[in-house]
Amino acid sequence: xxxxxxxxxxxxxxxxxxxxxxxxxxxxxxxxxxxxxxxxxxxxxxxxxxxxxxxxxxxxxxxxxxxxxxxxxxxxxxxxxxxxxxxxxxxxxxxxxxxxxxxxxxxxxxxxxxxxxxxxxxxxxxxxxxxxxxxxxxxxxxxxxxxxxxxxxxxxxxxxxxxxxxxxxxxxxxxxxxxxxxxxxxxxxxxxxxxxxxxxxxxxxxxxxxxxxxxxxxxxxxxxxxxxxxxxxxxxxxxxxxxxxxxxxxxxxxxxxxxxxxxxxxxxxxxxxxxxxxxxxxxxxxxxxxxxxxxxxx
Length: 298
What we know:
Elements: H1 10-13, E1 32-40, E2 48-56, E3 59-65, H2 71-74, E4 78-84, E5 88-93, H3 103-111, H4 113-129, E6 132-137, H5 142-150, E7 158-161, E8 165-167, H6 180-187, E9 193-195, H7 198-212, E10 217-220, H8 239-251, E11 256-260, H9 263-272, E12 276-279, H10 285-293
Parallel strand pairs: 1-4, 5-6, 6-7, 8-9, 8-10, 10-11, 11-12
Antiparallel strand pairs: 1-2, 2-3
């Protein structure tokens, strides 16, 4: 559980047994309390009417019905909610803190890091308050923000970040109006937008994301909607480049998530071993069948 006594981490809830506490339970610690719910969804097993959890510090210690609580637990501080459930995941999010979708706003977010962090802080709290205890960030400043959450400087969900989004030069991750030397300079100073051309550069940029602490690798297998000059229908990166990045990520037990709109990019990504298709706007039956065959998800 992170920051809120009302929402538990889904991964924690899945492993918690639903059981009746014993009457000889030891006296609870001072930081222990109960959360009662009209409906408790434990994440494993059936929903429980008039359910209750016992929270000790940052851990869920007991799960059951209010009637099953021991005498010791009955004296704990309590709060009541209508529904209690494990925390949710948002599997595609960005912490970039742009005030509008425009290249100059993106430049500002990459150059004024203190301002970007300050703008992201309330977003982290809003996510947690909305019930999201884990998020998968597919390019942004999530790695640094997660460090702040872990150390207690900010309140927010657990962040699993790709660090950057990677495309070929002129692709979706390239800031087209920006002179190339400027963009290259940004790439060398922590920008969440990276380009690579050819297999050697693709391997290196994947390794740079791993060096930064990325938990997943994000590439562009097709053009985008928000970028100025590329077409979302067109495939980006060659089949060989995609496969090289998939293999490189796999060596460090990471998967590739591919930004894909057009079918050509979707098919190329799936055939190369990409495990998640982000967007999939022009997904058709053939692509869906291949997704099932390759054990990938949308």
